[in-house]
Give the backbone structure.
Amino acid sequence: MQAADRRVEKKTKHEPWRDPHADAYVRIENVTKRFGDFVAVNNVSLKIYKGEIFCLLGGSGCGKSTLLRMLAGFEAPTSGSIFIDGQDMAAVPPYERPVNMMFQSYALFPHMTVEKNIAFGLEQEKGLSRNDIATRVTDILEIVKLGQFAARRPHQLSGGQRQRVALARALVKRPKLLLLDEPLGALDKKLREATQFELINIQDQLGVTFMVVTHDQEEAMTLASRIGVMNRGEIVQIGTPTEIYEFPMTKFVADFIGSVNMFEGQLIEDLPDRARIKSDELGGVIYIDHGISSAPGAMVWAAVRPEKINILRQPPADTSENCVKGVVKEIAYMGDVSIYLVKIETGKTIRVTLPNVERLSDDERILWDETVWLTWHGSSPVVVTQ
Amino acid sequence: MKPVGARTVGTREQLGRLGPLWMFFFRYGPPRWSEYVLQNWSGQRLVIAIPYLWLLIFFLIPFLIVLKISFAEFLPLGRPPYAPVFQWVEEGAVQIKLWVTSFAFLMSEPLYVSSYVYSLKIALVSTIFCLLLGYPMAYAIARSSPTMRNLFLMLVILPFWTSFLLRVYAWIGLLKNDGVINNVLQFLGIIEEPLVMMNTSFAVYIGIVYSYLPFMILPLYSNLEKHDLTLLEAAQDLGAGPIKSFLRVTLPLSFPGIMAGSLLVFIPVVGEYVIPSLLGSKDETMIATLLWTEFYNNRNWPNASAVAIAMLLVLVVPIMIFQHFQNKELEAGRR
Amino acid sequence: MNTRGYFSKAMLALGFAFLYVPILLMVLFSFNASRAVTDWSPDSPSLRWYKQLLQDDQILSAAWVSIQVAAMSATGAVILGTLAGLVLARFGPFKGRALLRGLTTAPLVMPEVITGLSMLLLFVSLEQLFRVMFGWQFDRGMWTIVIAHVTFTMAYVTVVVQSRLSTFDDSLEEAALDLGARPAKVFFRITVPLILPAILSGWLLAFTLSWDDLVVTQFVSAPGSNTLPMVIFSRVRLGVNPVVNALATIMVLVVALGVILSAVLMRRQEQRRKREEQMAASG
């Protein structure tokens, strides 16, 4: 938990993307990649700043891996350009780029020991003596806590250890930018959580810029300083994890990150301090405690996260806004939270999650087929127009 | 999976003097690390060119020469014994003389026609016998325990590493009139007179099935070994008996293996020379023997070439089918 | 098990008997003191035919030629076949790839008489060409045999190398490039060590095929340059020859020893690896 705390602290200090004069470390400008008729990456522009962990998040086939491979130099952009530390990468082959990659499969050389694997990259550099190489390998092994495994071969290591060797092998080159392709994908859930914090720690310690590609939103949320959500070759939103989760800009992002209840409706009031949406899907009015600044009468969607909805057994005092009556159809007990699926009168099912704060006896608990009222606060809905 | 299509490989400047030629060959860019290598590393050209040129010069061009000579005029006393097909008559003009006598001879001579038919019959029948013996063997190997499987496989491969010629020769001692089989049968009183087995079609079948059996078993095994056994369990669970589940599940799934193995036997056997000349009869000749005789005894190179071309024409379709299955097998691991 | 299991097991036993009885009989008769297969001489077992074999200069010199040819052909086939396998497995779809694929698989099934005849006609044409163009006379001999053998054995090496390469993800090569190694270095430091077992077995396979080949060799060799299969063939055409039995026994023994030894070594390595993997997973 200590690592997480430190990160929260760091985040408030280090947000270069808010400063319009800050120099981007990696600049991707209008990059497009086509494979025949298929457009894998479509006109993507992106700035990554020194010292940040940038996560590209998207489903399979969204183009995130292709973008990563273009940064590493394995694919050439069909059009557009990539700059790293101000240098155009177009004519630079992968073996001369100041970039290293941690592969999804780790790609550890099976015929070399851990030590040799890590030293391989250094041996390719000119002007490094044997002693320099040995020192740097020992140092990095110390950082990833693999000192006693130096003489082992990859197949003699567990999954977590292999992951750290792959990380060490890429880091020992002191890259300006480290690319991580699904860095935790091959680990089981427990190990994944521990490793996430370890990764952040190491990144903090060495100050390397990370670019992570993942399809796992939880991984993106914990690791990233900023997330770029990709869909069909395009970046649909860039923002901090909080921004992405709390203020999605499109239906796709709201839907993709976590679960959400989406209500289509018509904007009937739009003032600087409040807005109202009349939704037939909900069968009521949604009140929002801030302005939307959209055309009145426009069709919009209001997204409400399941954990931001309250369940009441008695009707609240005011049922005119942000309130709906329904019947509990399904209950899933997940341990830390319970999920309730409530069917409202329009036929739509709403998903609600409640933390299991206290142990409740059966008659205190909300049960199947009970009639309940769902309410939420005016700050909870997020309105998206596309 | 990544779709592959036309893409630029590099500019003319990047590719150097051979650029245009290069771009002709590599209009379709490769997908992975190779793409970058292709653009930036001239060594790649060499890597492709070396085996390519070797095979063009020593495998493809020779066939064209055979084709050319099959249309040449036979000169019994010439050195080499054929007239040139292409000749410079005057400046800038080439005279082409094509003789179809060799092919006409091939079609009109009953000996040739019958030996073609005989070769195809031998190849077909021995392929079937190889399959009938090889399939159950491959099946039993694929379904045995991993330790036994390795032992059995080794036993199948071992004869393959020992001399083919000597293994065929071993059968002479068994099949002769005073050979082991006849001796044993006479000793047991089953026969009075020795059975004539040497220099018959029977001996040829034995020799071929014996020599080519590993070629049938190995592709069948590698196919059967990959089958998911839960499929059979599913079939039995759904009420299919063992025979029915074999016929409806295992057999159709092993079709690529059957094709690969059968063609790996059938195609070379059509042109088999050693086995019929050691074990076969003098009256019924296989096509390879005729080619040999035409070439060495009659020194008729155009006729020998025509025999080869005719053999190739028969085999072109099987060879292409074989390549199809072979490549499917080899590239199955990749996407 | 069901009846199908018993049937296939019985066929397996029958098949192995079919494969091995002739070889075993040949081994047995190599120790028979008598020339005839008919009777088992009372002086047996004897090493008479082995002694005669050791004094047979024709066989010994032919064997020496065969070893040289096979070693050179196998080496050439491994170099060319590895390159071809690498190109087919790793260099993606380039125009002309289909032809290369065809040229590497066709020799696997091409009847030997066709290969032999076409190679000979090529060499004859080259002879003519060189004589007319440069006034330079060359003769067929060991080098023509080697070229022919390289051509038809490299197909086998290609298949072995290609299928080995296709079991490896090319992210290993990409990782090496990413770490700063140039393509040639990637090939020698990463690709070659990974496919070394395939290269070795490809070499052995090519060696055996070349060592064993009769038909192609007969076509492309010069009169007088004899390989071992040519000598054996000319002798056994006349019937059973006990010296050949002795020779065959030696060859079978060498091969069997080699195969068994390598199988044992591989098994040991496999077991050690499995143990280590289990230890790594649990620790």
The first helix of chain C runs from residue 3 to 29. The CA atoms of residues 32 and 40 of chain C lie 6 Å apart. The domain at 60-227 of chain C is CATH 1.10.3720.10 (MetI-like fold). Chain C touches chain B through 104 residues (CB under 8 Å).
